[in-house]
Amino acid sequence: MEPSIRYEQLIAYLGSQLPAPVDQQSGPDDSIVFTGGEPAEVVVHLSSTSVTVFEFACHWERPASLVARPRRVGMLKWRRLSETVLLNALGTLIKGARDMRLARYGTCGWCGIRKPPEMMADADICRECADQQTEVVH
């Protein structure tokens, strides 16, 4: 199969397999960066030769500055693999990245809402509830 046709198939496959909503941005060297989920769960970088899957992750640089730092889960040289092997491996990497991300979520002891790790002040309370508690005047 012609590489450009397989590339287009990969774009369609990623759009259908990543958690919704899927954001698609142009990356360096005519590559495409997909981000799936709200809040983000999985990031995939598709280039003309490889597809790399990341677990979405970020951290606070300053109190008001959240910086994305995705963690690499795996990379496939898609031109070297048969279609079946490629799609099976890619599906497994996406599922693994999503499972890893969701396993890091915490439940706030105050509001009871499950939130991503960057939205938790510590293991037991989310940032929103922690901010509300500091505003209480006795």
Structural features, described:
There is one protein chain. The chain has 138 residues and is an alpha+beta fold. It has two domains: 3-104; 105-138. Helices cover 32% and strands 28% of the residues. The protein has three helices and nine strands; from the N terminus they run H-E-E-E-E-E-E-E-H-E-E-H. It has helices at residues 3-17, 83-103, 127-134, and strands at residues 22-26, 32-36, 42-46, 51-55, 58-62, 65-68, 71-76, 106-107, 114-115. Strands 1-2-3-4-7 form a five-stranded antiparallel sheet, with helices on one face. The chain has a two-stranded antiparallel sheet with strand order 5-6. Strands 8-9 form a two-stranded antiparallel ribbon. Helix 1 runs parallel beside helix 2. The radius of gyration is 18 Å and the shape is elongated. The model has no long low-confidence stretch (mean pLDDT 91).
Any descriptors?
138 residues; five-stranded antiparallel beta sheet
Mean pLDDT: 91
- How many structural domains? 2
With strands numbered from the N-terminus, the spatial order across the biggest sheet is: 1-2-3-4-7
The chain-level structural class is: alpha+beta
The rounded Rg comes to 18 Å
Quick one: how many beta strands? Answer: 9
Portion of residues in beta strands equals 25-35%
Structural shape: elongated
* Biggest β-sheet strands, sense, barrel: 5 strands, antiparallel
Number of helices: 3
Q: How far is the N terminus from the C terminus?
A: 71 Å
Poorly predicted regions are none
Order of helices and strands: HEEEEEEEHEEH
Helix content: 25-40%
